[in-house]
Amino acid sequence: MNQNKEFKISNDVFALPVVFVFFIWFVYWIEIKFGFNFNKFGVLPRTFSGFKGVFFTHFIHSDTKHLFNNSVPLFVLLMSLMYFYRSVAIKVLIYGGFLTGFLTWVIGRESYHIGASGIVYLLFSFVFFSGIIKSHYRLVAMSLITIFLYGSMIWYVFPIKEGMSWEGHLSGFLSGILFAILYRKYGIVKEKYVFSKTDFDDRFDENGNYVEHVPEEEIQTPLITYRYIYKTEEEE
């Protein structure tokens, strides 16, 4: 794949982050405007009715602070995903979002889990580990920037704050690692440098053993001599 084409600014880089962030704000506006409470559409672990939250949880937030805290990193990380990992971005977002919700449904406490923070941790984890795994200098740089901006998030995959879904954070974090491994050969990868072959290289076999080179003009085809012996009938 042409890496110059992969690292290219386009409308897609901004379109998805803008649409996603706008949509979660729109959902929250509907709740406030019409007095709805969408919390019941969140993940309720290990219940059949709560399984629908696997699909809806990422778009529901409890208050404005919760929504704003998710919107900024979500926007930045989605742009990073679309710019550096365009070929797999949609797959990571859809499949990773589902896996994050599903793992939360499996390991979560018996309470409604809502918010896009699971997606934020998915993207954070994927962008960071994918850059490290691929070892491409631009992706590694992005990984370092990501850990610099959002490195403190790592502590919230543990139950250190009451009322916060650390299970959703952990699920997103683990999902990001998994997809970074699965898609390690897709998109931008580090190209191995191949040295040009010289005449000197021809003096060694595939095992590295020296092979004496004999000029073609010195190679002589051995002469074959045929001797014919005739016998007379008397001799027979």
Describe the structure.
- There is one protein chain.
- With 236 residues, the protein is an all-alpha fold.
- It is built from 8 helices and no strands.
- The chain has helices spanning 3-6, 11-34, 53-56, 64-84, 89-107, 117-134, 137-150, 166-182.
- It starts with a helix and ends in a 54-residue tail after the last helix.
Outline of the structure:
The chain has 236 residues and is mainly alpha-helical. Helix content is 51%, strand content 0%.
Relevant terms:
single chain; about 240 residues; mainly alpha; disordered N terminus
Topology overview:
Elements: H1 3-6, H2 11-34, H3 53-56, H4 64-84, H5 89-107, H6 117-134, H7 137-150, H8 166-182
Total beta strands: 0
- Helix percentage: 40-55%
Helices and strands, in N-to-C order?
HHHHHHHH
**Rounded Rg:** 32 Å
Question: What is the structural class?
Answer: mainly alpha
Number of helices: 8
Query: Biggest sheet, open or closed, and with what strands and sense?
Result: none
Spatial shape: elongated
Provide the low-confidence segments as ranges. Answer: 1-5
Overall mean pLDDT: 84
The first-to-last residue Cα distance is: 81 Å
Estimate what percentage of residues fall within beta strands: under 5%
